[in-house]
Write a structure and sequence with these properties.
The protein contains seven helices and two strands. By secondary structure, the protein is mostly helical. Helix 3 crosses helix 6. Helices cover about 65% and strands about 10% of the residues. It has a two-stranded antiparallel sheet with strand order 1-2. The model has no long low-confidence stretch (mean pLDDT about 85). The chain is globular and about 55 Å long. The two termini are about 25 Å apart.
């Protein structure tokens, strides 16, 4: 089952159920449960407040911060098949959140940028995401949160470097 299929089969009410004892010494299961809670809660709030979902938010954030040079590069950064990325961008463009322009140096390539509306929606989405994150890691100090982020980024960066 793929990630999207996994999330489609989640029962949001079950995300607040007691943590199974089996998760106590299985980091992968604990990370998946935490990620599921963040994804479901975040998507619910993003949809209600802004009419976007987690995939839209992720794309807006990546376009804003990573400035991919093409739709192909964006698809790679989002870990999506290029065809899936096209549909996502079509919807974001129809909503006025992104614009696609042909690269003047290579007319086969489209460059995707955020519109003013896209930047505004992203700022609001970032605030919602910060609230959801704070709830997910409630009880951690700022220093513990920063340490957790550093610990999780280490393997992620090493994996990206190995795949480069």
């Amino acid at each position: 089952m793929g990630v999207q299929e996994h999330q489609q089969h989640l029962d949001p009410s079950g995300l607040d159920a007691p943590l199974p004892t089996a998760f106590h010494d299985r980091l992968a299961l604990l990370l998946v449960r935490t990620g599921d809670r963040i994804a479901v809660r975040g998507s619910e709030r993003l949809e209600a407040a802004l009419g976007i979902d987690g995939a839209d938010y992720t794309a807006l954030a990546v376009i804003s911060q990573d400035a991919p040079r093409s739709q192909q590069e964006l698809a790679q950064l989002l870990c999506k098949a290029p065809a899936m990325c096209v549909g996502l961008l079509d919807a974001l463009e129809a909503s006025g959140l992104v614009a696609r322009e042909r690269d003047p140096k290579d007319r086969r390539r489209s460059i995707v940028t955020l519109t003013a509306a896209g930047r505004e929606v992203l700022a609001k989405a970032d605030a919602i995401a910060a609230e959801v994150e704070a709830e997910a890691i409630e009880g951690l100090t700022d220093a513990e949160r920063d340490r957790l982020l550093a610990v999780l980024l280490g393997p992620a960066r090493a994996g990206a470097a190995a795949g480069a």
